[in-house]
Design a protein that fits this description.
This protein is α+β, with helices and mostly antiparallel strands. It is 22% helix and 32% strand. The chain has five helices and nine strands. It has a nine-stranded antiparallel sheet. β5 and β6 form a beta hairpin. α1 packs parallel to α5. The radius of gyration is 18 Å and the shape is globular. The N and C termini lie far apart (44 Å).
């Protein structure tokens, strides 16, 4: 599926949602929501102290030929003292790939934004809607004061760890949802844990079971993390 070369601008637009909301009173900014803080303003690479490669499994389930399995790889090339990191991302491969430029001082994990931007591109393809419109609905859902957050336990690297699960439904109250009713109940679930390298354990979409025939369900789950081996530069290194 061809994707716009302006992906980076789209990611910035989505990630800056907390800075774009306006309050009820003129000149007052709306308080940044807890989901926005967790997903976009926390230092997701703060626990990584040496170059590390993080691998995620990506699965899309739909009617043929749209079902496929692929991979997402983040390489933390240089952890910074302030908790940010230099990160290079390979988000999917071949015709599914989304180009994400290397980031020198990444705070949030760019895999989240890659997942959302690909989902938005699929929504546009399936409904004919606007990418900016779908981005806006996601921003509003994450900024809403009633966005659901709960504490859960997940299994990573053979042990149980605490995680936060954030769930939003951007289209339930959408005044234009009649244009794409098959996705009106669509949800996005983010599973975030400080015990996981890069903080992102899983991101996935949901649809009510009675709409599953029209659905494209996607899941991205961390598989492992490995140290990046040092390159040999010659004798004596």
């Amino acid at each position: 599926m061809p994707l716009s070369p302006t992906l980076r601008a789209g990611l910035i637009l989505l990630a800056s949602s907390a800075l774009m909301a306006t309050g009820a009173s003129a000149g007052l900014a709306q308080e940044i929501s807890q989901p926005e803080k967790i997903l976009f303003q926390s230092k997701h690479f703060g626990s990584i102290k040496k170059p590390t490669r993080i691998a995620y499994a990506y699965h899309q389930e739909s009617a043929a030929p749209d079902t496929f399995d692929d991979a997402v790889t983040l390489t933390v090339t240089h952890p910074n003292a302030d908790g940010t990191a230099s990160v290079a991302a390979q988000f999917l491969t071949g015709s599914h790939a989304i180009p994400i430029a290397p980031i020198d001082h990444a705070q949030g994990n760019p895999a989240i934004l890659g997942f959302l931007e690909r989902d938005i591109a699929e929504m546009k393809r399936l409904t004919g809607g606007s990418t900016n419109y779908f981005r806006k609905r996601l921003r509003l859902a994450l900024a809403a004061p009633d966005a659901a957050i709960k504490t859960i336990t997940v299994n990573y690297a053979g042990r149980s760890v605490a995680a936060q699960q954030i769930t939003v439904h951007p289209y339930v109250d959408d005044p234009l949802k009649d244009r794409f009713l098959q996705f009106a109940g669509k949800g996005y679930v983010f599973v975030i844990s400080d015990a996981v390298p890069g903080t992102v354990f899983q991101v996935y979409t949901t649809l009510p079971t009675d709409q599953s025939a029209a659905a494209i369900a996607t899941t991205m789950t961390i598989v492992r993390s490995d140290p990046v081996p040092k390159k040999n530069t010659g004798p004596g290194t």
